[in-house]
Automatic annotation (TrEMBL), chains A, B:
GO biological process: fatty acid metabolic process
Identification of the protein by name: 4-hydroxybutyrate--CoA ligase 2
CDD domains, alphabetized: ttLC_FACS_AEE21_like (cd12118)
Keywords from the named record: Fatty acid metabolism, Ligase, Lipid metabolism
Organism annotation: Pseudomonas marincola
Annotated AMP-dependent synthetase/ligase domain residues: 27-405
E.C. code: 6.2.1.40
Source domain of life: Bacteria
Keyword Lipid metabolism annotated: yes
């Protein structure tokens, strides 16, 4: 080894040879080279990349004029549409952080997020006016509220100090936005579903957003000019970084307010869509659509799915209809998908059922995830690749979050030992593919949404007659999974399933309400812990 | 703006969420997920990605055992083959820097490079034994010489302390190679052709190599499993970073020792090649191949070309034969190509000649180049986008070199004002596309008018009998300078100076018409570029 390293002499990082990695570069490039290409389609609206860039710059400028900048949070409650897309660029262009909030949350949960994230601005689509108003009504530092008036949507109510278009008009077209000085700067804030108490705010930085956008596009063999249908909410891990990937690949974003087969199939046909993402429930919906709707699909479409292990039968049904399914896996903490079930040629010759089974495994590291392993949660020793030994999935690398906002303890726990602890339990197959067997935190995934069993139990425990409660996932034709509650009543009290469900409806978002309530004694271990695996077996029989 | 930025609190870079960007990750991934896929084809030899990874690890280990590590240079003089490919991974895996040397250089030039780069190890293919021996014979610190015995090549002479396979055998299969601690660490050293004095050593770092590998693949719409024919030498900007891109996309590298039409067409057919790179001279060679050879090409092939502005006529000829040409531009200092002539749909409807003219422009920034401009070399003020005003091309960003080895003065000059000075003169079109008019030193100034030698060459290439053409300045009593054309005729054709001049008079302004036409073989550099300084000397004698 050289005593003095000549390669470290006189070659520092400087303006000519070092720039922060940021997905904002993708937008500037798309707009400068392909200004006339269509970036966004929303109903009858069409918007080019040139226009999208100009409007994003105005948004950044308008925010800056209101004093918003480095370290500030701009929250958005909106469906996949033009404003939501532009916020993915305009907000970070002024140095701020975009916090896209799950529109299915109740006012209490949204209120918590706005408080914890210290949102200075809240952009709200008409459809979510009511919940937003309730969420902000008691806030000590109420954010500036900007109403989004989607001309394609006649319902709802426009609220806020001013409307989005008026706000854009406040901005300067020639605002000198800049790349972040440091690519480690935060670009987005995404709240987890809060499996253990309050949700945690996962922070993404520009470097990771840039890299995972490219990585997910590579997983999919994406080439220039994709036509992408937005069935996946952008509030889920920033749409798995696809708003940024679409800018990098100069694609067309086809927006969809409500994800229904009746809207998806016509959109596929009308816009020559070739890509979309969705939870297995979306695939299930399409696989079970009417023959009339299905007949609208005339060309191959690539589908990326994640959020729950997709049932082999659903994959099989989709592939038989000419959808090419790529199964990916990840968490909010890994910018969405960071693991991909890469296809092996030799699987082509297998029977459809076996092929679908291969495809339902979570897979291997995506192109730009650095490392992936299944290991003992305590020792971090990798488990044998025998397809049987259960361990926890660990990731590390540039597409793992910056950390949890204002929660160094949780960040330190999540990164203990130099790896991100996913909390998902899996086996490691001989070929290096990971397959999830269980969720260590008992997450229920319903319609693509993570539901914490603990959170529902918390509510049940607040019911005056309920002594004990345990919630597990139950199979649902419609949602993939739905919560199933097992409860023990207090002695001398009486209740009904209907009454318990009604209680839940008052205290949680609709999609979290248990589909079934069973009255029984809870099975317990010798140390008094509820044996959820026993309940899961019972739930299976009930489904 | 927030007084205290909560997004900078308690979220440092650590092992779980930060890893150095490096193309070495691509190899590890290809080998772990697709160990059985063919990585390399060299004559009758086949080598998988699993084997290539294992051998690269052994190479790194063997080097480390000889004391080679951080900051050390390992030089290679070899054709595109297995050892050269493996060196692109094995050398940096032990922390060292690969210096792939142009095999067409003479002993003196190679000797200078080995001395300046302080090579500790020199890997030499049999074919280049003699020049390597002469180059090293007088070195005070002679490097360890390792002979490469390509079993597919019967000629030449094996030299060195030991042979490459024996050296690999010294390495451990389980050597714990590591990613660089800092992605700014050097990975490669490439010497410029040294048009003005001694060549300069351009240093690449892991970050830039990673990013330009992806950027060039994106330019080409590359998807997984490309079959790539090596017509471009790997000693040329590390094959434009394609050894690393091929690992990222798990492709097959088809090696070719000597670039001839007689070898290229059969290789396209035999291996179902779908991609290759080459200077315009390679395209010219294929465009002028025999009908029998051309008949071997039965499927579409993507061609990436750079190294000189491709004459429109050559592009047109290639495209008419089903080669899809992507024209890119760059310099050794920008990791090879970093500018791409992105195609616009509306050009499809133009006549073939106009299409080829569009395609012969250098274009716009490649996906991962940060900025590109044409500007005044002194003031760095961008020129108007009028397609007429000549300025210098400037780039900045992550795919600009780390700097020149042991030459901070040249580095500072190259980066003056925060931009990399390319030395190429160009105009900027209204659509943002850059078009090179000449190297600074290749411009001909006649009667006060700037004449682009490229423009004249473009016309000469359209002459039916002209195979190759090069134009330089010649002294003129009257005009100061006048163009002097050197041309090579196609086999079996004849022409006269008078007839060529008449052809020019029909196709260009009078003041641009060459004052002299010389019929000859064009002198070329090792990379196939015409040696204009030789022609200038000849033109001096003719004036």
């Amino acid at each position: 080894m050289n005593a003095i390293n000549p390669y470290e002499y006189g070659m520092p990082r400087e303006a000519a040879n070092f720039q922060a990695l940021s997905p904002l570069s993708f937008l500037e490039r798309a707009a400068s080279i392909y200004p006339q290409r269509v970036a966004l389609i929303n109903g009858r609206q069409r918007q080019t990349w040139g226009e999208t860039y100009a409007r994003s710059v105005r948004l950044a400028s308008a925010l800056a004029k209101r004093g918003i900048g480095l370290g500030d949070t701009v929250a958005v409650i909106a469906p996949n549409g033009i404003a939501m897309f532009e916020a993915h660029f305009g907000v970070p262009m002024c140095g701020a952080v975009i916090n896209a909030i799950n529109t299915r949350l109740d006012a209490e949960a949204i209120g918590f997020i706005l408080q914890h994230g210290e949102a200075k601005v809240l952009m709200v689509d008409k459809e979510f006016a009511e919940v937003a108003q309730r969420a902000t009504s008691h806030m000590p530092n109420r954010p500036l509220i900007i109403g989004i008036d989607d001309v394609e949507y006649d319902e709802g109510q426009l609220i806020g100090e001013l409307d989005y278009e008026a706000f854009l008009a406040e901005g300067d077209a020639d605002y000198a936005w800049q790349l972040p000085a440091d690519e480690w700067q935060a670009i987005a804030l995404n709240y987890t579903s809060g499996t253990t108490g309050n949700p945690k705010g996962v922070v993404y930085h520009h470097r990771g957003a840039h890299l995972n956008a490219l990585s997910n596009a590579m997983c999919w063999d994406m080439t220039r000019f994709p036509v992408y249908l937005w069935t996946l909410p952008m509030f889920h891990c920033n749409g798995w970084c696809f708003p940024w990937a679409l800018a990098a690949y100069v694609g067309t974003n086809v927006c969809l307010r409500h994800v229904r087969a009746e809207a998806i199939f016509p959109a596929l046909a009308e816009h020559a869509v070739d890509h979309f993402c969705g939870a297995p429930i979306v695939m299930n919906m399409l696989a079970n659509a009417s023959p009339e709707l299905k007949a609208l699909k005339t060309r191959p479409v690539k589908v990326m799915t994640a959020g729950a292990p997709p049932p082999a039968a659903v994959i099989e049904a989709m592939e038989s209809q000419g959808f090419q399914v790529t199964h990916v896996y990840g968490l909010t903490e890994t910018y969405g998908p960071s693991v991909v079930c890469e296809w092996q040629d030799e699987w082509d010759s297998e029977a459809p059922e076996q092929r679908a089974r291969y495809k339902s495994r979570q897979g291997v590291r995506a192109p730009l995830l650095d490392e992936l392993m299944v290991a003992d949660p305590q020792t971090l020793q990798p488990v044998p690749r025998d397809g049987e030994t259960i361990g926890e999935i660990f990731m590390r690398g540039n597409v793992v979050m910056k950390g949890y906002l204002k929660n160094p303890t949780a960040t330190a726990e999540a990164f203990a030992g130099g790896w991100f602890h996913s909390g998902d339990l899996a086996v490691w197959h001989a070929d290096g593919y990971v397959e999830i067997k269980d969720r260590s935190k008992d997450i229920i995934i319903s319609g693509g949404e993570n539901i914490s069993s603990i959170e529902i139990e918390d509510v049940l425990y607040r019911h005056p007659y309920i002594l004990e409660a345990a919630v597990v996932a139950m199979h649902s034709e419609r949602w993939g999974e739905t919560p199933c509650a097992f409860v023990t009543l207090k002695p001398g009290t009486e209740s009904t399933e209907e009454s318990v469900i009604k209680f839940c409806q008052h205290h949680m978002a609709r999609f979290k309400v248990p589909g079934k309530v069973v009255f029984c004694e809870l099975p317990k271990t010798s140390t008094g812990k509820v044996q959820k695996f026993v309940l899961r077996e019972q739930a299976k029989a009930l489904a």
